[in-house]
TrEMBL record:
<keyword id="KW-0547">Nucleotide-binding</keyword>
<comment type="function">
    <text>Tubulin is the major constituent of microtubules, a cylinder consisting of laterally associated linear protofilaments composed of alpha- and beta-tubulin heterodimers. Microtubules grow by the addition of GTP-tubulin dimers to the microtubule end, where a stabilizing cap forms. Below the cap, tubulin dimers are in GDP-bound state, owing to GTPase activity of alpha-tubulin.</text>
</comment>
<dbReference type="GO" id="GO:0003924">
    <property type="term" value="F:GTPase activity"/>
</dbReference>
<keyword id="KW-0479">Metal-binding</keyword>
<dbReference type="GO" id="GO:0007017">
    <property type="term" value="P:microtubule-based process"/>
</dbReference>
<comment type="similarity">
    <text>Belongs to the tubulin family.</text>
</comment>
<keyword id="KW-0460">Magnesium</keyword>
<dbReference type="GO" id="GO:0005874">
    <property type="term" value="C:microtubule"/>
</dbReference>
<dbReference type="InterPro" id="IPR002453">
    <property type="entry name" value="Beta_tubulin"/>
</dbReference>
<protein>
    <submittedName>
        <fullName>Beta-tubulin</fullName>
    </submittedName>
</protein>
<dbReference type="InterPro" id="IPR023123">
    <property type="entry name" value="Tubulin_C"/>
</dbReference>
<comment type="subunit">
    <text>Dimer of alpha and beta chains. A typical microtubule is a hollow water-filled tube with an outer diameter of 25 nm and an inner diameter of 15 nM. Alpha-beta heterodimers associate head-to-tail to form protofilaments running lengthwise along the microtubule wall with the beta-tubulin subunit facing the microtubule plus end conferring a structural polarity. Microtubules usually have 13 protofilaments but different protofilament numbers can be found in some organisms and specialized cells.</text>
</comment>
<dbReference type="InterPro" id="IPR008280">
    <property type="entry name" value="Tub_FtsZ_C"/>
</dbReference>
<keyword id="KW-0963">Cytoplasm</keyword>
<dbReference type="GO" id="GO:0046872">
    <property type="term" value="F:metal ion binding"/>
</dbReference>
<keyword id="KW-0342">GTP-binding</keyword>
<feature type="domain" description="Tubulin/FtsZ 2-layer sandwich">
    <location>
        <begin position="1"/>
        <end position="99"/>
    </location>
</feature>
Length: 131
């Protein structure tokens, strides 16, 4: 049902990126529901989520939640939802990757694969600085 799907959409365990959305704020959100679902109920649920969790949504982007529906459910399911959220929490993932890169770059790990193809070590230093 729509309330359960809406709850699952915002659950950190269901995110494909290893970052917790509760550690950031949503800039924008899009949700595409598939199957026989009442758009009125979906809109109400999405509004409830925004009202209960207003601290997790930026206030300076109006109408930052988009919902859509496709009447045809995925094979084997009555309904499903695809969620796409643009959250500042992604910085956690970038920080981890940056820390891992820095540790490997200090050891010059795997660097030869790139330098032998014509890249310069300075390009990596510059890219690290720009992050």
């Amino acid at each position: 049902n729509a309330p359960e799907l809406t709850h699952q959409m915002f659950d950190a365990k269901n995110m494909m990126a290893a970052s917790d959305p509760r550690h950031g704020r949503y800039l924008t959100v899009a949700a595409v529901f598939r199957g026989k679902v009442s758009m009125k109920e979906v809109e109400e649920q999405m509004q409830n989520v925004q009202n209960k969790n207003s601290a997790y949504f930026v206030e300076w982007i109006p109408n930052n939640v988009l919902t859509a529906q496709c009447d045809i459910a995925p094979r084997g399911l009555k309904m499903a939802v695809t969620f796409l959220g643009n959250s500042t929490a992604i910085q956690e993932l970038f920080k981890r990757v940056s820390d891992q890169f820095t540790a490997m770059f200090k050891r010059k790990a795997f660097l030869h694969w790139y330098t032998q193809e014509g890249m310069d070590e300075m390009e990596f230093t510059e890219a690290e600085f720009n992050m």
